[in-house]
Amino acid sequence: MRLVIVGAGEVGYHIASRLSRERHDVTVIDQSQPLIERLQEELDVLAYRGHGASAATLEQAGIAQADMLIAVTNSDEVNLVSCLLAREYGVGKRIARINDPDFQRSRLVEAGRSIGIDLLINPSQAVAEEIWHLIKSPGAEEAADFLAGEVKLLSFLVQPTAPIAHQRLRDFALRVEPSQSFLIVAIQRERTTIIPTGNTVIEPHDHLLVIGKADRLHEHMHWFGVTPRPTRKVLIIGGGRVGLQVAQRLESDPTDYHVKLLERHAAQCQVLAERLAHTLVLHGDATDVKVLQEEGIADMDAVVVVTNDEGTNLIAALLAKTHGARSVMTLIQRPDLVPLVAALGIDAAISPRLITAGSILRYLRRGEVLSVFTSIHTEAETLEMVAAPRSKVVGRPLHKLKLPAGIIIGAVAHGDDIVIPGGDTVIEAHDRVIVFALPEVVTQAEKWFSG
């Protein structure tokens, strides 16, 4: 596939990195010379310096031969014009990032739909949805649902005292009853992503991606050093577009959450109070320990830190954790700071740019792929796919498939029957299957399941 990406920031860079590793032809446009040089030095892509809304620049980048254009600059107007020009050049698929906080009523969104943009992505909306999933999965660093919510994928940081620490997976499986109720499908150890085998040994501070039946997975979280408790009391720090959308999402949830929202600007507090019916809006500075203590930080089940300032987020999250909040998650704009979050003892990092990139990758995988999850801790992608009747995976036990290295099957759904598979599991035509794959073998994984 030939793709043109407009915007070489963290979103554009991440998408270009993933797709180039899958051997797609990727061209990136940006006005920043340092960003262009970074792409040329680090990725196998073509990179051009220029304006993404310029027909001349797009022509230089080969827009007439492109199958898809992805516009992810910080300017909504540039993104829309890029897509409009791409339509004139006959580009089949067009994707645009729209940052307008009032996404549902935005004139830019209306304009994007009117010119036939295939996918409009709003980062704050995507982030709010991710935070909601984490609140619903206490103790996890990341969370995603598959197979209509019947299967859950969670990410855990292995605590030094966890029963699974220092265990060989083959030996550990003998201690779990039933042995196939969950599966560890990927491990991030420092900068290395590992697709585990029976001989893999789990080390303290590993980040594990774990898949299991949604109604049973919580029973096994103690193996990773996690003791989940229901979340009821939630404090949101930061009343910007993300904080507002998280509060609205929690208000619409049937769970009886008790939500407080702490915002430092009085005028914004008034706006929030008018738009939120069941959230207690408070005026105060979240970096002031006294303020946090007055609002009962030690009694909070979850603290969500989503201000627009990176430094404030880290300080407020650290203060919340050290003063008794059970679970703390924070917004991190720079992906390179994500490892720092775990090192500070904060429970979860939320990267808007990586979440946005993941939403776009999910769209790109459409076809036999029903859903995609991209972890911020590991390089592995999680794909929900349908086994085509004539595909290579159908009709043989998993242990006889000889899947390429870097691919593992995490769950299989045959009708209403869902199993966490073993070596004797047989995939049948039209089964829905959860597959984990490293970036360099994602394309191979898709071919194994296609007809």
UniProtKB/TrEMBL annotation:
Q: Any keyword Zinc-finger?
A: no
A Gene Ontology MF term for this entry?
potassium ion transmembrane transporter activity
Q: Name the UniProt key words of this record, in alphabetical order.
A: Ion transport, NAD, Potassium, Potassium transport, Transport
Q: Where are the transmembrane segments?
A: none
Matching entries from SUPFAM superfamilies are given as:
NAD(P)-binding Rossmann-fold domains, TrkA C-terminal domain-like
Cellular component per GO?
A: plasma membrane
List, for all copies, the residue spans of the domain called RCK N-terminal: 1-121, 231-350
Q: What is this protein called?
A: Trk system potassium uptake protein TrkA
Does the keyword section mention Ion transport? yes
Pfam families named in the record: TrkA_C, TrkA_N
Give the Gene3D superfamilies listed for this entry. NAD(P)-binding Rossmann-like Domain, Regulator of K+ conductance, C-terminal domain
Entries under InterPro entries matching the protein: K_uptake_TrkA, NAD(P)-bd_dom_sf, RCK_C, RCK_C_sf, RCK_N, Trk_Ktr_HKT_K-transport
Per the database record, which ranges form the RCK C-terminal domain? 141-227, 370-451
In terms of PANTHER family, this protein maps to: POTASSIUM CHANNEL PROTEIN 2-RELATED-RELATED (PTHR43833), TRK SYSTEM POTASSIUM UPTAKE PROTEIN TRKA (PTHR43833:SF5)
